[in-house]
Amino acid sequence: MEKLVIEGGLPLKGTVEISGSKNSALPILAATLLTEDECVIRNVPRLRDTLTMIKLLKSLGKTVDFTDNVLKVSQKGKLNHVADYSLVSTMRGSFCVLGPLVAKLKKAKVSLPGGCVIGVRPVDLHLKGLKALGTKMDIDGGYIHARAAQLKGRHVYLGGVFGSSVLATANVMMAAVLAQGETVIDSAACEPEIEDLTDFLIGMGAKIKGKGGPRLVITGVKKLKGIKHSVIPDRIEAGTYIILAAATRSNLSIKGADLTHLAALTDKLEEAGVKVFEENKILKVKTKKTIKPVSVTTYPYPGFPTDLQAQFMAMMALCQGVSVITDKVYPDRFIHIAELNRMGANIRREGVNAIVQGVKTLRGAPVMASDLRASAALVIAGVAAKGKTEIHRIYHLERGYENLDAKLSAIGAKVWREKE
Ligand code: UD1
Fold this sequence. Notes:
Blueprint lengths: L1 E7 L4 E5 L4 H10 L7 E4 L5 H12 L2 E6 L2 E6 L6 E2 L1 H4 L9 H8 L1 E5 L12 H9 L3 E5 L2 E5 L7 E3 L8 H11 L5 E5 L5 H12 L3 E3 L5 E5 L8 E3 L4 H13 L3 E5 L7 H10 L2 E5 L2 E5 L9 E3 L10 H8 L5 E6 L8 H7 L3 E5 L2 E5 L8 E3 L3 H13 L2 E6 L2 H4 L5 H7 L3 E6 L1
Parallel strand pairs: 2-15, 3-14, 6-7, 10-11, 18-19, 22-23
Antiparallel strand pairs: 1-23, 1-24, 3-5, 4-5, 7-9, 8-9, 11-13, 12-13, 15-17, 16-17, 19-21, 20-21
Helix pairs in contact: 1-2, 1-7, 4-6, 5-6, 6-7, 8-10, 8-12, 10-12
């Protein structure tokens, strides 16, 4: 195992190039199960999570070639219907093979993913939607056993206690594209990653109306074909580097990001006194010496993303004043508070809120990565802090940030890996 060592406190400058979106790539890779034809997918980030999805696709009978961020998925024989625990338990994104497998094979055995440190993370909405389309489901031995004689289009409401669900929308949509008749999904997730999946499915020959909105109308077709597609830029990776610029009071250029996907973040940064604007297709982040405290509540898209909450908190830890951070998508996603406090931050949890009292400086410390985005917050804190930070369990970062050390070094951060 390796740890990431950061010598913090250096000013950053230069350009960061953003990779393809992990959360787009995962359901899109699952969607390749819907056709026997070859699919060519560009701009796929080489990450632990995409490699896990490739392993899963191979275990289900697909042939996969992954060269230079281009993924070619083809199929020679028949698909297998079992998604194993070892692959689904390490990454919840794997659960979105359930919809395509049921649609294509009329049966699936998919391991239940279980919870993780950011919360319980149930899958009731996935199951509700697939049941509505005519799938019979039992749980046995930690697996969902699903069977369907013929999927039939229906009206499905997918709003849950915490709003819409990204991967439940993906699962139900991928089943509905091959169902008989019309499916209407209400309270569908509106995340750009779902829009990207919709484009992918339409390119395969699916009939979907309402792209990007909360009501999707899907008319089932008999067969889908292969497609060439390029994955959208990773808005969470882009947001992480933008927040890094602000936290270190640096001016950075961000190449290859889509500003329209980042409105909730840039609006909050504007309030804090940080400017983000586009110039010749490159995003420029301009930061002042002092940053005003800003309170943030996360919501499903187009609200402030829960996947940027921890990083924003790291930045707020270095503001002059008090901010309140609330997560309405994962109300318990606060495990990073204790680690940030080990670096000198002054953050306390009060019920569903994190109260952040800004401090002048953070100081490097050994810290423990607990999940992907919490780890990104520790990287931001480590680069902004004075002295040396050691981040243990960096495999979390490898799940979601392509070439993290190289990208950080290129903008002037002093970062390296060491054996534990
Ligand atoms: C996706 C993202 C993840 C992001 C999350 C919310 C991928 C691979 N992952 O995860 O990075 O943090 O969206 O933007 O795309 N819920 C239920 N029942 C369900 C499903 C979800 O109650 O059946 C709840 C969840 O516990 C959570 C909320 O709904 O409170 C949103 O979760 P959801 O959108 O489903 O997250 P994922 O799709 O798993």
